[in-house]
Design brief:
Serine Threonine Protein Phosphatase 5, Tetratricopeptide repeat; 4 strands; disordered N terminus; mainly alpha; single chain; 67% helix; two-stranded antiparallel ribbon; disordered C terminus; 505 residues; globular
């Protein structure tokens, strides 16, 4: 499962903006769409900034080098946020779907086991996945009104076989899949991408399927969009992937089950979030690899390529970037001060853990004087799922004692670390500290990553109204959060009903 994320904090980003504007003063007049996107970025409307770029700039080669850096920086940031949203969706969807399945009330969902199957596969809980898949098949036998979803049973069965390495079972299941059906053929290719890294489907087949699933610039099937974005991105067909992302309504559910005239249940695919995130990764990488050829901006390109690989915990490129980080000299001071931390992040990915911990501990010990560096060290622990209890304990003391806005990101990252380690009380205290040190001009003027994790910790502490308030607000900028928002709302309603409250779901 592709797990979790993020880029340089907003303070460093703002410092970088200043540097970019200075070095770009002799360049051609800035692309107006880049200018507009940067304004949205600074106001924390990061997904809207990305949408403006994707909709208005089809040919990135028309941009000058400074504009390409800005474009990539915005995409990197959005990638980190989407990966965090993805992890939140997996957790919240699982709880909601399990609640639906365990519901003893009237009008039980017959579809929930199928969507829970995918969650369990993504989390490598294969026995649970098989149980839910069999449960869905039994539901279909008793009631065939959701027969449109039946082809997915063979796909999930094949997927489980691939993850288990059961070649015989995979081949037997593969024979049952209708490869003339676009969704089935594309789904089969996607599960092979996810498990083997190989894609063999003819791209012309997907192009032909667009006529069926895209009508008057509206995508009628979220599953089609999910698969098309994943396959096109994997194959490097970024202009084709971008076309799908442009048209996609990210709030749209994958399937709506009609329980009765008055009861509809919407189901979503967390894997859609990961597919869109994969597109952002490939897009940013393509821009930065082109920019790497420019001598003047080579170092900046390497730094942000390194950032992509850390966000995605990429082990295959770790040694290369660990070595390259040592050679970067043409960077703003705000970034060059982070090189040792990030270099050791790559080293950690290929087993050089002792030296990495030492570098991060040194950064945290200096956090009182430079909290940004301390925040970056803790960010490495988050990205790489490293166990950093001693380092984080020191960082916690520095974060809680620091009263200025400079300590916002240190509080945020320490809070996120505690959240990942399920230390919920500590996490809530640190994340609320971060908000107190953040932007008082309105909740949406604060970092989306902070708000996402604050909403999650409120959910875990059963403060549902506050959690949902944040998700509703963030959803204005990140429509794909609808699936998290709906899951949290469903969890809240189930809990209310279990306590005897007069709520019908």
């Amino acid at each position: 499962m592709a797990d979790i994320m993020k880029i340089a904090n907003s303070l460093l980003a703002l410092l970088l903006f200043q540097s970019l504007f200075l070095i770009g003063s002799n360049a051609n007049a800035a692309n107006t769409h880049i200018d507009s996107a940067m304004k949205l970025y600074k106001s924390m409307e990061i997904n809207k900034a990305v949408a403006k770029l994707i909709i208005n700039i089809d040919d990135i080669n028309t941009l000058n080098s400074v504009e390409k850096i800005k474009y990539a920086l915005i995409i990197n940031k959005n990638l980190s946020i989407y990966r965090d949203i993805y992890s939140k969706s997996l957790d919240t969807q699982q709880i909601f779907l399990e609640s639906l399945i365990n519901d003893k009330g009237k009008g039980k969902s017959l579809v929930a086991p199928l969507f829970l199957t995918e969650i369990y596969i993504l989390q490598k809980e294969l026995n649970k996945a098989e149980q839910q898949l069999n449960k869905f098949k039994e539901n279909l036998k008793r009631n065939n009104k959701n027969a449109a979803l039946e082809p997915a049973t063979n796909i999930y069965n094949a997927w489980i076989a691939l993850v288990k390495g059961d070649t015989k079972r995979f081949k037997e299941t593969q024979k049952k899949i209708d490869l003339d059906d676009p969704l089935s053929a594309m789904a089969l290719d996607v599960i092979q991408i996810l498990t083997t890294g190989k894609s063999t489907i003819e791209l012309s087949f997907i192009k032909a399927a667009e006529d069926k699933y895209i009508i008057e610039d509206e995508i009628k099937s979220v599953r089609f969009a999910n698969y098309a974005i994943r396959i096109y991105s994997h194959r490097g067909e970024l202009s084709k992937a971008r076309s799908i992302v442009k048209l996609l309504d990210q709030k749209r559910p994958s399937y709506t089950e009609e329980i009765s005239q008055f009861k509809l249940i919407k189901f979503y695919e967390p894997s859609l979030i990961d597919s869109v995130a994969t597109f952002y990764y490939k897009l940013a990488k393509s821009i930065l690899e082109e920019l790497e050829k420019d001598t003047k901006y080579h170092d900046m390109a390497i730094y942000y390529l390194s950032d992509l690989e850390l966000i995605t915990s990429n082990t295959t490129s770790a040694k290369r970037f660990k070595e390259q980080m040592l050679t970067l000299t043409r960077l703003p001071k705000s970034l060059s001060s982070l090189l040792a931390i990030r270099q050791n992040g790559h080293a950690y990915l290929y087993g050089k853990t002792t030296r990495a911990y030492q570098a991060w501990e040194k950064a945290v010990n200096n956090a009182k004087n430079n909290p940004s560096i301390g925040a970056e060290a803790i960010l490495m622990c988050i990205y790489l799922d490293a166990s950093c209890p001693t380092i984080v304990q020191t960082a916690q003391l520095k974060a809680e004692n620091g009263k200025s806005k400079l300590f916002e990101n240190l509080n945020t990252n320490v809070g996120r670390y505690f959240l990942l380690k399920k230390e919920n009380i500590k996490a809530m205290r640190l994340l609320e500290n971060a908000l107190d040190r953040g932007n008082a001009g309105g909740i949406l003027m604060n970092e989306p990553i902070l708000l996402l994790n604050l909403a999650e910790i409120y959910r875990l502490n059963k403060r549902y109204s506050e959690s949902l308030q944040i998700y509703f607000s963030l959803g204005q900028n990140f429509p794909i959060l609808r699936q998290v928002q709906d899951a949290v709302q469903g969890e809240y309603l189930f809990r209310q009903r279990s306590t005897g409250s007069n709520i019908v779901f």
